[in-house]
Specification:
This protein is mainly alpha-helical. The chain contains 11 helices and 3 strands; from the N terminus they run H-H-H-H-H-H-H-E-H-H-H-E-E-H. Helix 6 packs across helix 8. The chain is globular, with a radius of gyration of 22 Å.
Length: about 290
Amino acid sequence: SWQAISESQAFQIICTYLAVQAVLGIIMIEYAWHKTPRYRTKNEERDGSYPSYRRLDAKKLVRRRFYPGAMLMMPSRLILFVVNLATMVFLVRVLCIGHNFDRKPLGGCRKKVVFFVVRWFCQFMLWFGGIRLSVRELDFDYSAYLGPNYKKDTRRSPVTSTIVSNHVTWMDSIIMARVFSPSFTPKIELKSAPLLGTLGMCLNNIWMPRGRSDEAKKAALDAIMERQEIVEQDESLAPILVFAEGGITNNTGLITFKKGPFYAEKTVKPIFMKFDRKAFSPAFNMPLLPLIFM
């Protein structure tokens, strides 16, 4: 009967999809394994000199442990992740039609709608990425560093213009977008990226010039200070997020901060992200594709 044929065809489609997914999962793991031998090899002479960057899970990286998840879920989760990202960028771009970002950052009701969309799509991406998120707020006393009356300092703005955080994984920006919906400070080269460039424009990102020259450093400082002033004058605007270490570590501690977000002595909200790495560390200290596949 037609119903029996349809059920048979559906079963064949499902079996074919699962088989293709399993093959793709194996190929991805083999590719990742082939690209990461030096990251999986413990070298005390090398790692001892750079403790904040060493892979702490090198002994736990066993190939066979990656096969079940890769064969059963990984390709599907990657597809859902990419489709979710593309849909979010499309919706945000539609919501921003008619706004001139060269004149001023996005604000008002439209900003609230855009950031609502971004927060929930970022939550979906965290689910697809297998990340469960919890937030804990601590009331820390900074009087030992800023003086006993730092909360009464008249120079202190009631508006937090800047969030500073450590940087561990390629998912950090998604996590921060889900929790705080800030504007980011990515390198200017990402402005031309197909999806990230469009999304960054709608989130009022500051496209930072990178380089060791005095001109590049001054341009970066000026860009941060200008946005801090704008946010303090208009609290409806999103604060900026700066990964103040200027690099990525293995989440065991902090390295020296760059002076950019602190130079103008504006109100800063410190954030520390801590990842529970029972088996595999998500630290972005290996190539991106192998890290995603593993």
